[in-house]
Each structure stands twice: as C-alpha cells, then as structure tokens.
Specification:
Layout lengths: L4 H17 L5 H4 E9 L10 H14 L4 E10 L2 E11 L13 E13 L2 E8 L2 H7 L7
Parallel strand pairs: 1-5
Antiparallel strand pairs: 2-3, 3-4, 4-5
Protein name: SnoaL-like polyketide cyclase
Organism: Geodermatophilus dictyosporus
Pfam families: SnoaL
C-alpha cells in the first residue's frame, strides 16, 4: 500500500486541483514519471508518461479553455481510488476532427486510479462520447 486512505484521497484531490487551476507543474508531485492513462473513449490516444498526460491536458484546455472537472465521489481501497466526476466546458477550439462549436458540454466521467510510492501511477477513465458529441452539436440532428 502507498499510504492511508486519507493520503490517497488527498492525492486525488491534488490532481483535481492541479487540472482545474491549470497548474500542470504541480503534476510532478502528483503523478509518477511513467504515469499511464487508459481510456476506452479515446482508444487511439496512448499516454504512457506524465509528460504526455500534461500535453494532453494542454490540448484539452485549448479545445475547452473554461473546462472544470469536479470529483463528486472518491472511494479509496488500499492503493486504488475510484472517482465519479463531472466535466464541464465550452468547446471554443478544435476537438480532434470537430471544429469549435461554441457549445457547452456537461457529462459524467468514471475513473480508477492506482497509487505507487505516494503518486498516481495509473488511471483508467471513461465517458460516453455520444453524450459529449451530441451536446456539442457534432451529431446529426443534435
């Protein structure tokens, strides 16, 4: 185990705060250098380092500059934590093949994090792309 339940919960909150404040330098103390992100919703995007994750967050902020991720529930079990979160943001930048829509999206996100040596080493995360693309107006009839 990499710490008490409260230490793991605090680490997960530090991740949330760093992402929302755009303090990506704070991720050096939160994520391991070899951090891995697994995401079924973005199967072609491989993230196998803290540096790649930081770049991903920069790209996300370029598409949704006002994005906020709110971790509504955090459950801790040993060196693992589960989160239920809400992502909100207005798409004013390019999102993959989708041009800026100027529309706001709000959707739920589920994730599981693994902690090793006092930092987050791995993240499994997913959301419903149909919900997101529909809210942004990128689906027919949306």
């Amino acid at each position: 185990m990499s710490g008490s339940g409260e230490q793991v919960r605090t680490l997960v909150r530090r991740l949330e705060e760093a992402m929302n404040a755009r303090r990506l330098d704070a991720l050096d103390d939160v994520l391991t250098p070899d951090f891995v992100r697994h995401c079924q919703a973005t199967p072609d995007l491989r993230i196998t380092s803290r540096e790649q994750f930081t770049d991903f967050l920069r790209q996300d902020a370029a598409a949704f500059p006002d994005n906020v991720q709110t971790f509504r529930h955090i459950l801790v079990d040993g060196d693992m934590a589960a989160i239920w979160a809400t992502y909100e943001g207005t798409q004013t930048g390019q999102l993959g093949p989708f041009p800026p829509s100027g529309r706001r999206a709000r959707f739920d996100v589920a994730g599981v994090l693994r902690v090793a040596d006092g930092r987050i080493a791995e993240l499994w995360i997913t959301w419903d792309n149909v919900t997101v693309l529909g809210q942004l107006g990128h689906l027919p009839g949306a």
